[in-house]
Amino acid sequence: MLNQYLDVKPEVAEAIKEGRPVVALESTIISHGMPYPQNVECARKCEQIIRENGAVPATIAIIGGRLKAGLTDDELEYFGKKGQAIAKASRRDVAALCAKGEDGATTVTTTMMIANMAGIRIFATGGIGGVHRGAQQTFDISADLEELANTPVMVICAGAKAILDLPLTLEYLETHGVPVYGYGTKELPAFYTRHSGLKVDYEFDTPEELAKAFHVQQNLGFKGGILVTNPIPEEYSMDEKTINAAIDEAIKEMDEKGIKGKECTPFLLAKVVEITGGTSLDANRQLVWNNTALAAKVAAAYCKMN
Hints:
By secondary structure, this protein is α/β, with parallel strands linked by helices. The chain is built from 13 helices and eleven strands. It has helices at about 10-15, 30, 40-50, 75-80, 95-100, 110-120, 135-140, 145-150, 165-175, 205-220, 240-255, 265-275, 280-305; strands at about 5-10, 20-25, 55-65, 65-70, 85-90, 105, 120-125, 155, 180-185, 200-205, 225-230. The strands form two sheets. A nine-stranded mixed sheet has the order 1-4-3-2-7-8-11-9-10, sandwiched between helices. A two-stranded parallel ribbon has the order 5-6. Strand 3 (about 55-65) and strand 4 (about 65-70) form a beta hairpin. About 50% of the residues are buried. The model has no long low-confidence stretch (mean pLDDT about 95).
């Protein structure tokens, strides 16, 4: 039985019922990840890419206290225009937003939760959250990692966001038993760049291989998800020294201003865009579209196995 607070878009519900491929998309990337109107343009293109690859898009959000699996074009526009005025909703925010009848932009965590409620197994995003730099003192660790350990959804991304502590993020995922796979790579991509110097657990070279690994994990009865890391296309990968210098500068300013918690990631991403003159924003869009195309192909292969 579907959750009483959940609204599944008719097109999405029909596809799920018929066993056709569906790909979930988050809404924080619309409201907090990019400025208007680029955010709406990016979201629309994500949905278009999914359709072009034979799947149905389901952008996830909370609107008026209702959990939404699939948005209309007007709702995408609404999210893009309202932007950061919409609450960034992680797991701990969902009940309050539903009770108050308010809007929420879903993070990786809440997108996984709502996708799972609706029966959607494949989710494409830009980058996941993780262990923040300095977490040994602050304990600032994204709820995304815990959700991956407990919710049976495959998340396809370009690695953890480059503003994070990538080695500690991998350690946390290993401790919680989350498989980290590389698509066509043995190395963890670092969001804006293709290389981090860190190794993933296993490399897979086709969407069909990824779908089979997820299918087997489901049949084994394991409760958690899988993280698939898909490197940004070579032609859009940024220079590592340039992006790392921009991130260091952004983190320094964030610390000076005393920005903490869920405000960190939006501030840092916006600051990096400013420092790089918009280059990082274009890279962000390209990697999201790249992940979206792969997710649709994996979803199609996964449906054939079920």
